[in-house]
Write a structure and sequence with these properties.
- Helix content is 27%, strand content 20%.
- Strands 6-7-10-11 form a four-stranded antiparallel sheet.
- Helix 2 packs across helix 4 and helix 2 crosses helix 5.
- The two termini are 27 Å apart.
- It binds zinc ion (ZN).
- Zinc ion binds next to strand 3 and helix 3.
Amino acid sequence: MSDNHQGWRYKKEYLDGIEALENIHLHDEQIGRQIRAKSKKCTPWKLDKAQQSAEFQDPGYPVYKTTLDVCTCKDFVLRRLPCKHMYRLAYELGLFSLDNIQSSDACRAVEIFDYLLKLQDDWIARQKEILREKIEKNDPPTKKFSLKRQNSLLREPLHYAKDWFFCVPQYFNDALDIALFSIEGEHRWSQGSTFSFSAGDSIYDIPFEAGRPWSEDLKTLNICLEIEKASPVDVLGEGDDAYRFPGSVECTVFTPDENRQSIVARGQVTMTQDEFVRMLITGANEKISPFLPTKFDAKGQGLLF
Ligand SMILES: [Zn+2]
């Protein structure tokens, strides 16, 4: 269940796609690892410059042994592509620059998104533990499990994020579970994971400007998604059986016709709300990719298809 939301990122075709790129280090997923490689937490505790190897230790995890070709961490074992440790090693050896890596809105959002989902899994596990303790002590059982909120937002609440693949304006705040809460009299934005895109929502990959005619929009638009059916993220089941249901979204995919005179329905795709939100940020999704043009220059950098 817990790997559902990102399982496709470890699929062979997807990874082969990254590997086939002329410069894999420019792919979104790899840039995310370079950003993490730069962090203080990712400082090697042993570095052997002569052997070009290093060892890393995160508190609570085993020691990772890293060379320029392999690493013993789970990320490398699953993907067989450079992990953050390998990037950091290459950087320490002066072979790879991390200086120009900037955390773009989209990269940051992906990090926040992945962290948010991990948080929910851990949170439900913790609630189950509390429930078991209560049962042992004959205390009244916990009521329905809740999901946790955090302060880091997927995007600014009052704007769309310029470098997300899709344009997701502020009227989708509810759907993205970005909400204003009053904490001790202070209003604060917070981010939840109860994503709730719903039937009738239309999402485009370009922003619309007031007064600009549709014929102009058609010149730059690549894709439009119209949601036909959806169910929101929710906690289902009770007690030890409780789990976070990642929701579902069924949408029709529209792309422009050859002459960019109109948009044409090309097919339907179904995915979880989790997958949907991640796709809105990165544009990368194995179900959507067949509908996208194969080349992106100005936009969609990091897209592999
Ligand atoms: Zn590694």
